[in-house]
């Protein structure tokens, strides 16, 4: 873990949060928005770094704090994008934010996507619905280091076309970036007439992706049930457990193993995760209500 | 070992006050021995004993002058070092601009009087959670003085000797006392304890007093109300996540959260924001939480642990098993409070023994859970 994370642990009692100003709110999908924010203090802003898949705790004045993965480009840490679906008390209050409003940011926390593990082989990214948010930073990083991988495959599934995150970017990756060697496949559970891509759950894309299990490293994020089925399929295709990585969600209120809410068996998802190698937590995921 | 008479003990409390400490000691209130701020010996529970059992706690008067002839009430050091409610951040908003201000570090210097070995161990267990990450906890912890008390009358729900945490104070104390008929034997555990001891009117204990002191805790071991076998932890509970006993205990458990509130090591908490009526000041408060409440595991997609079965399993498995993986120690110190203060008298030692007796049993898929 980086030095920044250690000093953040020092202050976890709730102190020294960073204040950030909202620069832009972008509509991404159904009830889902990206809040682009800039840290107020110029020294803090310039020192801030995060790695793909890490979490920030975002605080809304008088309302509360929520864990959100940073979904922008880790190579551009001066402006931070967090994608949030409005569905609860705090996330709905976020909808009232506009340019110039201030929030607090604490982080980054947790273990990032291990991009380097995929070096030399194929990187397969499998996203379900909002699971694209913590994976987008990994895609950006992978594009930056495109030469380090053989193939870069991105499979995206969602309930319907209106639930596909970052649609403008998806179109861009699917068309313009094809020449840069990104293989993007999109699918929705239920399509409509305007949908030019596939129909079916995300696992139906696997045969089309021609996965080579000998060299593929997988990053997946999405609803737990989706990840379980995706991983089951990938294992059946011969991808080893040790090369499948997934990002888990739990109730997190501190980010530093203090509040206890995010426990999954012996793991604290906030700090031991949220990214886990499948063999670390596979048996735990099989236990219901753990 | 040194010997301190009763007047010398009063002198110890006076010395601590003189050195700027706030005395935290046992006192009788509302039919129980609680921990609170005290001024001196007069408030200690003189001539009182406890009768503890599953779901039962009663005080009785005795006709002697003993101050510590009991085990422990519902409170432990946790209530002071990790208070049930604590402001962790103040934020103010003016013209849309936020100013965040952490509260000042606490300056109170506690002196805990009469903590049992189980509770001293419990503080060491919580240290592993809070010491690095929580500066307020660290400030209170590092400025505190701990006067331990060797246990003579363990409760019927106690099992510290099974957990290796008592009944004799083994560490975590500055001074450890053993109450005898007319005075105390006293031992220092730290340089600070040595320093305090030098300032007191103590004398070298006689051979008989030494023996009497050791006999006190030997009797306590013999009188220990309960035992539990913790061999093969954490694996015993890890491999029995689908054991039918979880359904059985869930049918009795009220998910009232009492056990987690009285537990001296439970550290889980919520972080709650509240806003002033003017809309200009916001306070972030940390409050004790319990894994027995449904909202504890709330996520956007719903609660992870809907059933009481899964919540009881989480608590017991965390306490006795996953705590070992997380912090290198068991989360249980064997104080037995969770048994005493459980309104239906659920007994962790019985639950573990029952799982061990039928190790590997798996519930039927169709079993209905609470």
Topology overview:
The complex is a heterodimer of chains A (290) and B (370).
Chain A lengths: L2 H8 L7 E12 L2 E8 L2 H6 L7 E6 L3 E6 L10 E6 L3 H6 L7 E8 L12 E7 L3 H13 L7 E7 L8 H8 L7 E7 L9 E2 L6 H4 L6 E6 L2 H13 L7 E4 L15 E2 L2 E2 L6 E3 H8 L5
Parallel strand pairs in A: 7-8, 7-11, 8-9, 9-10, 11-12
Antiparallel strand pairs in A: 1-2, 1-6, 2-5, 3-4, 3-6, 12-15, 13-14
Chain B lengths: L1 E4 H13 L2 E9 L2 E6 L10 E6 L2 E6 L16 H4 L3 E10 L2 E5 L7 E7 L1 H14 L4 H9 L1 E5 L10 H4 L11 E5 L3 E6 L2 H8 L4 E2 L2 H17 L11 H4 L6 H8 L5 H5 L6 E7 L5 E8 L9 E2 L2 E2 L4 H20 L9 H4 L7 H10 L13
Parallel strand pairs in B: 2-8, 8-9, 9-10
Antiparallel strand pairs in B: 1-11, 1-12, 2-3, 4-5, 6-7, 6-14, 10-11, 13-14, 15-16
Helix pairs in contact in B: 9-11
Describe the structure.
The complex is a heterodimer of chains A (290) and B (370). With 290 residues, chain A is of the alpha/beta class. In chain A, 23% of the residues lie in helices and 30% in strands. Chain A has 8 helices and 15 strands. Chain A has helices at residues 3-10, 42-47, 89-94, 132-144, 167-174, 206-209, 224-236, 278-285; strands at 18-29, 32-39, 55-60, 64-69, 80-85, 102-109, 122-128, 152-158, 182-188, 198-199, 216-221, 244-247, 263-264, 267-268, 275-277. In chain A, the strands form 3 sheets. In chain A, strands 10-9-8-7-11-12-15 form a 7-stranded mixed β-sheet, sandwiched between helices. Chain A has a 6-stranded antiparallel β-sheet with strand order 4-3-6-1-2-5. Chain B is an alpha+beta fold. Chain B is built from 13 helices and 16 strands. In chain B, the strands form 4 sheets. An 8-stranded mixed β-sheet of chain B has the order 3-2-8-9-10-11-1-12, with helices on both faces. In chain B, strands 7-6-14-13 form a 4-stranded antiparallel β-sheet, with no helix packed on it. Chain B has a two-stranded antiparallel sheet with strand order 4-5. Chain B is globular, with a radius of gyration of 22 Å. The mean pLDDT of chain B is 95. Chains A and B meet through strand 6 of A and strand 6, strand 7, helix 4, strand 13 and strand 14 of B.
